[in-house]
Specification:
The protein is mostly beta strands. The chain has a single domain, classed as Jelly Rolls, CATH 2.60.120.200. The chain contains 3 helices and 16 strands.
Length: 267
Amino acid sequence: MKQSSIIILTAMILLSTSVVHAENYLPAVPALGATHPTLIFDEEFNHPDLNSNIWYTDFLGHQRIRPNELGYYSVDGVILGDGHITLQTSQTPQGGLSYTAGVLATYPEPRAGHTGFQQLYGIFEVKARVATTYGVKSDFWMKSIRGWPPEIDIFEIWGQSPANIAQTVHYKTLGVQNNALSYTYKPVNTHSTAAVAAWAAAYHTYTIEWRPNYITWYVDGVKTDTQTLGIPNTALYMILESDVEPSINGSSVFPSNYDIQYVRAWQ
């Protein structure tokens, strides 16, 4: 079966398990909504339990410890609320580490009967409120089950600078394992403490349009960057995580929450 057929089959399965409303929600980007893309994946976290057929609370290969990170990725760091989910970092020792962290990933694992979700090209979007603790990073990114790179970072945000939004594509070239093209978008005056605090206190949408020859990033519907080099040409799955970085210091306050209202994908 060709890869495109596998993706379509996966999408059909997910339409019956993840789309929780009959409405065909459109992206937060008006120009993308005007093209009337087909909603393939919609998770609004409004069920009593997390859909374990789609989401894992660890990394590919069931890893719960990551290099150069101080948190143990535990189900305890994934807290389902009413219409949202929280990835929480806390100063709770687990797995030989001093902190507990939270992650959600949609990597497919056919041998375990786990559908997951991966897709080649399309529009991907999250609505979230990031963590603001010094040294805690919130992110939404995508990678391949076949190895790394490729990787698309829809966003990475560090708690000490919540209005600095890093948007990156990682790719491989002959002789170079990891090339990275990155842009940092600053939606408000980062020298204004009040402006940064107001930004960080609110939910925002983070979107990419990924096509064969470009990736365009958006924040709250505003176009922020486009890259045309190193565009992945294989299906990628989604990851959302809140991790504890070595940069934490005495000002870091725990627990720290990364709140997510929805995750969506269109074709």
